[in-house]
TrEMBL record, chain A:
InterPro entries named among the record's database cross-references: Beta-prop_EIPR1-like, PEX7, WD40/YVTN_repeat-like_dom_sf, WD40_PAC1, WD40_repeat_CS, WD40_repeat_dom_sf, WD40_rpt
Keywords noted in UniProt: Cytoplasm, Peroxisome, Protein transport, Repeat, Transport, WD repeat
Pfam family, one: Beta-prop_EIPR1
Lineage of producing organism: Eukaryota, Viridiplantae, Streptophyta, Embryophyta, Tracheophyta
Keyword Manganese recorded: no
Keyword Protein transport: yes
Primary localization class, coarse: cytoplasm
WD repeat windows: 106-148, 149-191, 192-234, 236-278
Family membership noted in the UniProt record: Belongs to the WD repeat peroxin-7 family.
GO biological process, one term: protein import into peroxisome matrix
UniProt protein name: Peroxin-7
UniProtKB/TrEMBL annotation, chain B:
Molecular function in Gene Ontology: peroxisome matrix targeting signal-1 binding
SMART domains named among the record's database cross-references: TPR (SM00028)
Spans annotated as Disordered: 1-20, 44-76
Protein name: Uncharacterized protein
Repeat among keywords: yes
Residues annotated as signal peptide: none
Length: 321, 734
């Protein structure tokens, strides 16, 4: 199951939390500047083993504007959401024919929606992050957002739910802060001036609920303990350009995956002295999307503006599969 | 830094109305134009009879839809809506919540639109209501022929349409997105470099629509016209006009101070106005030529971008298809050919325009069928019904929205946090730490501008009436001198609010925002309700991208205004919410449309929310009421520069400078606008003029350095670093 050629530059990939062989990908024409988006579900099993075999798209849906992010529902195996450049969040049911999709069009953000994350604990909620400086909390059964989170002073690029606390998520913004929110509180519970440049992505450690990693235009990843946010626990340097996304491993405590405008994907262990575990150079353009499988330990995926989607086990060469 | 500082960060998000980006939609809108836009709104949902029990995509009865475009525009202002939902709809009754009492038309337009979207998504495209109305009639004609030629396989020969406005929002969107991406990618580059890249890209898109002929030499008559218009219409062809005007200015006198004096001697105090009027009429005459000038300048920029890209030595970027794409786009290669974004990267065999066309062709006749099919399949949605049954079973234990509103604090973590954060005897030190952290963060962001820094050697200390002297110097436009006199005044009378205020204004006009804010804060301490001070603080914080502070001061302006104070309820803690403030000021503008100040604040607010078109409109309204307000012309210019209209911005700055020749900030802004257009040599001259007038204008020095390097004048960078004004002025006379 090596590589899949997407119809357009890739922006995001997500492994299904229900099927180990399902991968969701978002791609957008013309590098997301203008043109259509594509939401694709890949079947990895159909590829079969060995080189040359490619994953097969089992669901493909073109959208009228660029897609910047996508996420699977944690509550229903074929439900997924996509973040669109036109400010909408679209819900798709991959089990339904295209004619019946999108199953829901959530049009509230005034500007590009750039990040999505589904609550893994309280599985009936997800959050969207938008360039209109707000985040919105949604429940798939409601036609309108449940809550809007205001406070960021510039584009919000990403959001990530805590793996432990059902009401807590964090957001990353161009205002150079990361903020931690509790959906029951009106204001952020923590404003973390995380970097001196824009913060593009963040994620919670799945094993230690107080550990948060932020990725920034300043090329670094910083790991924070939100209980003592004065200084980062670790600073991971090694990327040559802005770090686009960061994800914590669902299987190994302290392990991180990141991708960057330097066209590489890196694996880290922030607790190790020599933090950089691996660097993958397989993409030929900016890498925009990464994920680690929850169901298969060590299975990684990445996509980039070279229109390629790669799936590979940690420790192997993505192109050799 | 004037409002131009808005350039440096805030402008990147798409303004309202611009975030709908796909040209396809505009195309489709235009093509289906008159036939589909209103009718589809009326007919499409009308033909859908949706069972009220279906789960998704429920269309409400037609009667809820007035059928006007405004409903769709509301789409763009959704912010109050969420709250309405929480208030209006019972937490669990989601069907009801489709039509909350407060906003009946929302549910209508939205879900109806969902239908529409759904159908067209089948064809891979979406018909979207136009956000800013291009001239539909003209467009649809052109686009019909475009589509027809596509079907017939004939290369599309467009009629040269002046100002093909259809893609304004698309262009804006391309600009916004590329700007944000460029900022991520080119983090090491100076902001201005990024700006230049993006502006170049956008200007070139302009060419592709309008300058098709001249670029290929296919329309000799256009070129001819251009040449003629350039020679005959002096003031409008900015480049020439600016040079000429500057030459005149320089000839009259090299010393700006005495220039102002001699001007007054020559023409009397009213000379300004009359010359201004004259100038204005010349401007109007030359509008056409001006537009062409901008396009020609854009061609030049395309070339420069190509050079810039070529000079980037990083192999990654040399090989990046993305940068090739940007480069090609800026050279017009992508759009010139068949008027399609087509030749993109080699791997993209099919441009979106093509795709649209095939899809459109394939589906043009069948969408009605699909629609009918759609109708039948409504409610058969498997997941949806599954969900509905689940939902019914699970209402009691699953209702976390309720829980949320009840503010459940049994959760361990929450308790920990709220206990720590707000409890009285917190054993947990981290909450305190957090508080500390927060306040230190706040402090650090405000520290640099909290303290006013006085000049060391001040000849005006001991002056019998420094206030009067300062006012006089300010009136004459001797800003740096005025600063000294006013500093002497506030040293003498620290509680003189007017002294501090004027000092702040002087610093602002002298292009020193840090000092301006510091002075204004002192003025505000001395007199917390001075409207001018509040407005100035609002503007300065807007320049510094501090939305919260800016909104707070502008809101206070309203509260303290004798006329509009009643509109603004006392503000709870925290900064007010932007759209609320905008609404209040719009109400104020309705109360007294002749109050220029209200329009000025609205312009500032729209800058804050990056709605530049609205901001420009507000400033223009204010200018009709206050045509002699040079700072207002500067604001208009800065806003136009923040939008995509560097050429217009130069005209506005020029008016500001006509009214106040020693307006350092406008000189610097002028330089920025030229630089944004890629005219670095010109920008250098303006920066040099700005720093010559105020050698303390650090920002202008920085911009000068950037322009020197962009103009490949490395030889003068040393002079710039040494702040050697003599050498710079000699090399770059205005």
């Amino acid at each position: 199951m090596p590589a899949f050629k997407a119809p357009a530059p890739g922006f995001a990939v997500r492994f299904s939390p229900f099927h180990e062989n399902r991968l969701l990908a978002a791609a957008s024409q013309h590098f997301g500047l203008v043109g259509n988006g594509h939401l694709i579900v890949l079947d990895l099993a159909a590829a079969g083993p060995g080189p040359g075999a490619a994953p097969v798209p089992v669901f493909s849906f073109p959208t009228s504007d660029a897609l910047f992010d996508c996420v699977w529902s944690e509550s229903h195996e074929s439900l997924c959401a996509a973040a669109s450049g036109d400010g909408s969040v679209r819900l798709f049911d991959a089990a339904l024919p295209p004619a019946q999709n999108p199953v829901r069009l959530l049009r509230e953000h005034a500007r590009e929606v750039h990040g999505l994350d589904w609550n893994p604990v309280r599985r009936d909620a997800f959050v969207s992050a938008s360039w209109d400086d707000t985040l919105k909390l949604w429940s798939p059964d409601r036609p309108a957002s449940v809550r809007t989170f205001r406070g960021h002073e510039y584009c919000v690029y990403a959001a990530a739910w805590s793996a432990r606390h059902p009401d807590v998520f964090a957001s990353a913004s161009g205002d150079r802060t990361a903020r931690v929110w509790d959906v029951r509180d009106p204001a952020p519970t923590l404003i973390l001036p995380a970097h001196d440049h824009e913060v593009l992505s963040l994620d919670w450690d799945k094993y230690d609920p107080s550990i948060l990693a932020t990725a920034s235009v300043d090329k670094s990843i910083r790991v924070w303990d939100v209980r003592a946010p004065r200084a980062p626990v670790a600073q991971l340097a090694g990327h040559g350009y802005a770090v686009k996304r960061v994800r914590f491993s669902p299987h190994r405590q302290g392990m991180l995956m990141s991708c960057s405008y330097d066209m590489t994907v890196c694996m880290w262990d922030y607790r190790a002295e020599d933090a950089l575990l691996a660097r993958y150079n397989h993409h030929t353009e900016f890498v925009a999307g990464i994920d680690m499988s929850v169901l298969v330990d060590g299975l990684l995926a990445s996509t980039g503006w070279d229109e390629m989607v790669y799936i590979w086990p940690f420790g192997t060469d993505p192109r050799a599969m | 830094m004037a409002m131009r500082h808005l350039i440096t960060g805030q402008n990147s998000c798409a303004p309202d109305g611009a975030s709908s980006s796909n040209p396809l939609n505009a195309f489709a809108n235009a093509v289906l134009g008159q036939s589909s836009k209103t009718q589809s709104i009326k007919e499409l949902p009308g033909s859908v009879s949706v069972p009220s029990t279906s789960d998704f995509g429920t269309a409400p009865p037609l009667s809820t839809i007035p059928g006007s475009e405004n409903e769709f525009k509301q789409d763009q202002r959704p912010l109050a809506r969420g709250a309405d939902f929480i208030r209006g709809g019972p937490a669990n009754d989601w069907i009801e919540s489709f039509r909350p009492p407060g906003v009946p038309e929302f549910g209508g337009a939205e879900s109806q639109y969902a239908e529409f979207d759904q159908i067209y998504n089948n064809a891979g495209t979406t018909i979207r209501p136009p956000l800013d109305g291009p001239p539909q009639r003209v467009l649809s004609g052109v686009l019909h022929s475009f589509l027809a030629s596509g079907r017939a396989g004939v290369p599309f020969q467009p009629v040269p349409v002046p100002a093909l406005g259809l893609s304004e929002s698309d262009k804006q969107c391309i600009r916004d997105r590329s700007c944000i991406m460029a900022r991520h990618i080119l983090a090491d580059q100076p902001e201005e470099y990024i700006q230049a890249q993006v502006n170049t890209l956008l200007h070139s898109l302009d060419i592709d629509n309008r300058m098709r002929g001249p670029m290929h030499g296919q329309y000799p008559e256009l070129e001819q016209y251009w040449n003629q218009s350039q020679s005959s219409m002096g003031p409008a062809s900015m480049h020439n006009a600016a040079d000429k005007w500057i030459t005149e200015f320089g000839n009259q006198n090299n010393n700006p101070e005495s220039w102002a004096n001699s001007f007054e001697q020559q023409y009397g105090p009213n000379g300004w106005a009359s010359e201004f009027e004259q100038h204005q009429s010349q401007m109007a005459m030359g509008q056409m030529g001006g537009a062409n000038m901008a396009n020609l300048a854009a061609m030049e920029q395309s070339r420069m971008l190509a050079q810039t890209l070529a000079s980037n030595n990083d192999p990654k970027f040399q090989n990046s298809k993305f940068f090739q794409f940007v480069s090609k786009m800026s050279r017009g290669e992508l759009i010139i050919e068949d008027n399609q974004v087509k030749q993109g990267s080699a791997s993209q065999s099919n441009g979106w325009a093509d795709e649209f066309q095939t899809q459109y062709n394939a589906n043009a006749n069948s969408w009605a069928d699909q629609f009918a099919h759609e109708e039948l399949s409504q409610g058969a949605d498997k997941w949806a019904s599954e969900f509905a049954s689940e939902h019914n079973q699970g209402t009691l234990n699953d209702n976390w929205v309720d829980e949320f509103s009840k503010l459940n604090v049994t959760d361990e973590w929450a308790e920990e946090f709220s206990g720590g954060g707000f409890g009285e005897s917190s054993a947990d030190p981290w909450a305190d730490e957090f508080q500390e952290q927060l306040s230190s963060f706040k402090q650090s962001s405000g520290a640099s501008r909290g303290v006013y820094v006085f000049s060391e050697m001040n000849p005006y200390v001991g002056h019998p009436n420094p206030m009067q002297e300062g006012q006089e110097l300010f009136r004459k436009g001797l800003l740096s001198e005025a600063v000294l006199a006013l500093e002497a005044e506030v040293l003498k009378n620290p509680d003189n609010a007017e002294g501090w205020r004027l000092l702040g204004v002087t610093h602002a006009e002298n292009d020193d925002d840090q000092q301006a804010i510091a002075a204004m804060m002192r003025a505000q301490e001395a007199n917390p309700t001075n409207l001018e001070v509040l407005l100035a603080l609002g503007v300065s914080h807007t320049n510094e991208l501090e939305q919260g502070e800016a909104l707070t001061y502008l809101y206070r302006w309203l509260q303290n205004h004798p006329k509009y104070g009643g509109l603004a309820p006392p503000q709870a803690t925290g900064s007010p919410y932007g759209p609320d403030v905008v609404r209040l000021f719009n109400e104020a503008a309705q109360m007294s449309p002749e109050d220029a100040d209200v329009h000025i604040v609205l312009g500032v607010l729209y800058n804050l929310s990056r709605e530049y078109d609205k901001a420009i409109a507000s400033f223009k309204t204010a200018l009709q009421l206050k045509p002699q307000d040079y700072s207002l012309w500067n604001k208009l210019g800065a806003t136009q520069a923040n939008s995509i209209q560097s050429a217009d911005a130069i005209l506005a700055y020029q008016k500001a400078l006509d009214l106040k020749p020693n307006y350092v900030r406008a000189w610097a802004n002028m330089g920025i606008s030229y630089a944004n257009q890629g005219l670095y040599e010109d920008s250098i001259r303006y920066y040099v003029r700005a720093v010559a007038m105020n050698p303390k204008a650090d920002n202008a020095w920085q911009y000068l350095r950037i322009s020197l390097s962009n103009a490949s004048r490395a030889d003068m960078i040393a002079a710039c670093d040494a702040r050697n004004l003599d050498a710079l002025q000699k090399e770059f006379p205005l």
